[in-house]
Amino acid sequence: MTQQQLADLVNASRQTIISLENGRYNPSIVLAHRIAQVFHKQIEDVFIFEESPK
């Protein structure tokens, strides 16, 4: 699947997908859910939650 194909499926831009892949962007819960659905996975299987240091 290309970045553009994923972007089209989840109603996001290709730049958003690139930023997600490079760890420069944290998706909204809605976008994370859409991406997980595309791959038939749970959100936790696709994204790793790491708290920012305080």
Question: How would you concisely characterize the structure shown here?
Answer:
The protein is mainly α and 54 residues long. It has helices at residues 3-10, 14-21, 29-38, 43-46. The radius of gyration is 11 Å and the shape is globular.
- How many DSSP H or I helices? 4
In whole angstroms, the N-to-C terminal distance is 37 Å
Got a strand count? 0
What is the rounded Rg?
11 Å
Question: What class would the helix/strand composition place it in?
Answer: mainly alpha
Topology:
Blueprint: H1 3-10, H2 14-21, H3 29-38, H4 43-46
Helix pairs in contact: 1-2
Question: How does this structure look, described?
Answer:
The chain is mainly alpha-helical and 54 residues long. The protein is built from four helices and no strands. Helix 1 packs across helix 2. The longest helix is centred in the middle third of the chain and has 10 residues, at 29-38. The protein is globular. The model has no long low-confidence stretch (mean pLDDT 94).
Characteristic terms for this protein:
mainly alpha; 4 helices; 56% helix
